[in-house]
Each structure stands twice: as structure tokens, then as C-alpha cells.
UniProtKB/TrEMBL annotation, chains A, B:
It comes from Actinacidiphila acidipaludis. Residues 150-281 form the Acyl-CoA thioesterase-like C-terminal domain. This is Thioesterase family protein. Residues 36-114 form the Acyl-CoA thioesterase-like N-terminal HotDog domain. Pfam families: 4HBT_3, 4HBT_3C.
């Protein structure tokens, strides 16, 4: 983890650099990006990182800054390297706008292949009224100091392949949901942890899109091993996160027909529920 | 409620008639429909009915029959009357395909206005493997006979305007979540009920899209009155429902910034979790 002196700020961090999209001057609403290899896990580019990339393009294309609700369908596997994002504005209202974005890469035959399609409603989180009437409570979990880092894990855990993303996260798992790393999953289908960015950048609405898909999959806690490909991921951003690490709690209540849902709740240091997400994923065979 | 003798079958019911889409012979993937006034509530066409209409068009356009995950963004208010649906196939795989659909109506100036945009992943629910590992349990609620019908409600409840949809539903609310009808909301943000179709048609995957948005809004149980417009609704279908009425449980855990999420779980008569849904809606001012 970065020292306080070297702490990255929002706008000047690994996350900001690797999600930066470059608008094409001659094609309004079209953006180029070089997808970073720094956010891969196993053999794939992390789905939350990809969602943040598309979220940043829509943030530029739409008149409102924050994704209030954003849904991604993962069509084909993205690879590190060049990609183009095409956006479309569907509706621009006073308090909310709706847009669509697709990310494409060129395959070995030179054909453009769509990787992800996103549809989202954007607004301004900081302009929302102050009313909060919530019955939701933060997840019960140990303090940051009492949670475990991937540095503590043995080398023969269920993840084989790239773990590049772990170097960019400051992730501490609740020991109650980390037993899978030593072959003792709880079986409950839960995953909880503290989540910061390794370079010390605080969270903002865009990095919340990463946060909802940054923990190990709940399938590991169910005793399953292998890849859990996301078919669809929907995120609701509910508030601008306060500085400091987030608490992220994932739950799977229904694995059936080879599919599972993964529900995510993200809480900030001020005990505010800042994001809710749900994804439908294919369960690992293992 | 229909008598057993007059019981409508799947394919031959009010719901099937009113969601029937007519493919244009000369425009593949384009469909016409006359949106029925029979599924309106207050001043609006019900969002679940509209989702079922779009779901039926995609069912025709895509190579797989069932929406495994479907997301709708409600852009402008639909009106009863003619509409056109345009679909696009994004990806057609062996076990799953992905498509997009938009519903348009013509405004008073003769311009085509987009009402709803949907993106969905389709598969074949009856071809999924049989494995079920679920920790979810059906909602605790009284039997159908001990729940209350809208016929039991006083005339001065919070709903003013059309209640046409209620004539097409066989809806019985858990009395614990029906107090709002007599000015005594629980404040918890819950809504639970048994849900059939009034003409006796059993549920199928398409009518589950209606079911997730057919109960009164949880806002009523929070003591709020008025319209709760859906911004975005995502539904995951997890199994083909068994015959008989469904149990639908809605929960709101976070009302903040003028927005609320409404989570829906739908259980069939065989105690199987057949659908999970979440919507982001604007909270009523009242």
C-alpha cells in the first residue's frame, strides 16, 4: 500500500490512467482506449474495470456525471490492448439522461467484435436531495487490521493464472469468507472485505463500478473452483463515497441451473450504502 | 376469478392476447402491437406488462426462448395504443443469445418517440442442468385464503386513477403489508402477496416479467403516496414456474436521494425461486 506521502489523488492514479478514454475529434461520442493488462484476473480483463471504462466514456458523452443505474452484458472476452467505445444518447432530461455504449476490439481476422454492451441512466449524485430512510445496515465484519490480505494466502489457492489486479487493490478479506484459500470454504456463498486502491486513491462513483466486481467470487466460498464468467452486471450508485476504504459484501442465495446471482452491497467509511449491484454469472463446474 | 371450467390456458388468455406482437413481413426483427388499456395503473401502462411485451418480441427474434436476464430503461411514458418494437440480435451462441429491443410510439406531432429500451440475455430454462444449491427460503406469509384482495380495500386508498390492471390479476396481499390501504402502513418497506392471473392462466417465463412489477409499490408501506416511476428494472428468471399462484415478496432497504430500490423475489408453488428482480425508482414526494 502506498505511503501517505505518495498517495494518489482522484484523477491521478493507476485507476484513472487505465480507464482514461480519448474522444475522437472527428467522431462525436466515440472513444479510444488501450485496455490495461494491469486489471486482469486468471485469463480475463476484470469486468468491473471494463464497466468503469465504459462508465467513463458515458460520463463524457452524457450531460450528467454519475451512473445512477448501469447494466453491462458481457458478450465476448475482452483482451488487454486497443479498443473503441461507441456511445449513443437515448434521452437527455433535466435531472437524468440515458445512454448506451459498446466496446469493440479487432480480432485476428481484422473484424470488429463487440465485447460489451452497456445501457445506463446518469444523474448527479451530489445534487440529489439529502433524505435517507434506510433499513439496511453495514455488514458485520472485523476491522481492516483483522482482515486478511492476499499476501497472507498460500500459493496453491483456487486462482491459477494472472492475479495482476490484486497488485492494484488494497483488499482485505473477512477471515470468515477467506477459508477457501486454505481449502476450507464456509459453504455459505458469502464474500466480504475492505477495499481500497493500492496507490491510495480514494473512491469516487467511477471506482465504485470496479468495487462491485473486485472481490473473489462467492463461488469460492461455496467450494467451487474455476472461472465464474459474468453474463450481466447491474450497478446502482446511491451516494458519493466518503474517503477511506469501502466495505464490500457479496452474497449468493441461489445457485441453480448452472447459474448464480451475486449480490453486492458497498458501504463507505461514513456507514452509507453507496452502491448495490447484482450480477448473473455462470457457475464454475468444479 | 375465473371458474375452473373457464380457466384460460397459456397461449389463450388476456395476458397472451394483450402481449401478442405481430412481426412485419418486410422488416425482420420489427413487430407491431396495440398496447392494451387493460394493464394501466393510475395514469400509466404497467412497467411489467410492457416488459413482457418486449420480452415476447425478443423471444421471437432470438434463437432461445427465455429471458435469463433482462433490463429495461423506461425513457418516456407509454400510452395505450399502437406501438412498434425494433429488435437487434447482438450475439447468438449455443446456449445463450443476447438481444436488444426498443418500443416506440408516435406522438401528437407525428414524431416517433422511444418509450423503453431493453437489453437481454436469452437461454432455455427447461434445458438448464438440474442442480439447485440455494440458501434462499420462501417468504413467510399467510396462506392465500388468509391474504386480502383489493375487493376488500376501502375506496379512499392511496391509488387514484385507473386500476384496470387489478381486474386482470388475482392478487392477495399479506395483511402485514396491506395496512397502507387503511392509512396504517407498517413503515418497513415490504410488500408481499399471492399472484395469479384473473382468468386462471398459469404463469410461464413471460408472465414472470409481469409478476415482478405487479404488486403495489413498497413506497406505500413506507407511508408514501403517489406515483413511483420505474427508471430501470432488471429481472433474472431462474426456473420455469410450476402451475398455481406465485408468492411475490418486495423489499426496499434504501430510500435515499429521492430514489429507492425495490427488490423482488418470486416463488412458485413448488417452493422454487423462479425470479429475482431489482428496480431503481423515483420515490413519491408524498
Amino acid at each position: 500500500m502506498a505511503t501517505a506521502a505518495a498517495r494518489a489523488a482522484i484523477g491521478d492514479s493507476e485507476f484513472d490512467r487505465d480507464t482514461a478514454v480519448v474522444p475522437r475529434a472527428d467522431e462525436p461520442g466515440t472513444y479510444d482506449i488501450d485496455l490495461s493488462a494491469g486489471w486482469t484476473i486468471i485469463a480475463a480483463v476484470n469486468g468491473g474495470y471494463l464497466l468503469a471504462v465504459l462508465g467513463r466514456a458515458l460520463r463524457d458523452a452524457l450531460p450528467h456525471p454519475d451512473p445512477l443505474t448501469i447494466t453491462a452484458h458481457y458478450l465476448t472476452a475482452s483482451q488487454p490492448g486497443p479498443a473503441v467505445i461507441r456511445t449513443q444518447t437515448l434521452r437527455a432530461g433535466r435531472t437524468m439522461s440515458t445512454g448506451q455504449a459498446s466496446l469493440y476490439q479487432t480480432d485476428e481476422q481484422g473484424r470488429e467484435v463487440e465485447r460489451i454492451r452497456v445501457i445506463a441512466g446518469y444523474g448527479d449524485l451530489s445534487a440529489l436531495p439529502d433524505d435517507v430512510r434506510t433499513s439496511a445496515t453495514p455488514p458485520a465484519m472485523p476491522s481492516y487490521a483483522d482482515c486478511v490480505s492476499s499476501d497472507d494466502a498460500p500459493d496453491d489457492g483456487p486462482v491459477t493464472g494472472s492475479t495482476a489486479i490484486l497488485e492494484r487493490l488494497d483488499l482485505r478479506l473477512d477471515p470468515a469468507t477467506a477459508g477457501w484459500a486454505i481449502g476450507m470454504p464456509s459453504g455459505a456463498g458469502d464474500m466480504r472485505g475492505w477495499l481500497g486502491l493500492a496507490d491510495g486513491r480514494d473512491h469516487d462513483p467511477l471506482s465504485l463500478l470496479l468495487a462491485v466486481d473486485a472481490l473473489p467470487p462467492t463461488a469460492f466460498d461455496l467450494g467451487l473452483k474455476g472461472w465464474t464468467p459474468t453474463l450481466e452486471l447491474t450497478v446502482h450508485l446511491r451516494a458519493v463515497p466518503a474517503p477511506g476504504p469501502l466495505r464490500v459484501a457479496l452474497t449468493t442465495r441461489n445457485l441453480a441451473g448452472g447459474l448464480l446471482e451475486e449480490d453486492a452491497e458497498v458501504w463507505d467509511s461514513a456507514d452509507r450504502l453507496v452502491a448495490q449491484a447484482r450480477q448473473l454469472a455462470r457457475a464454475p463446474r468444479g
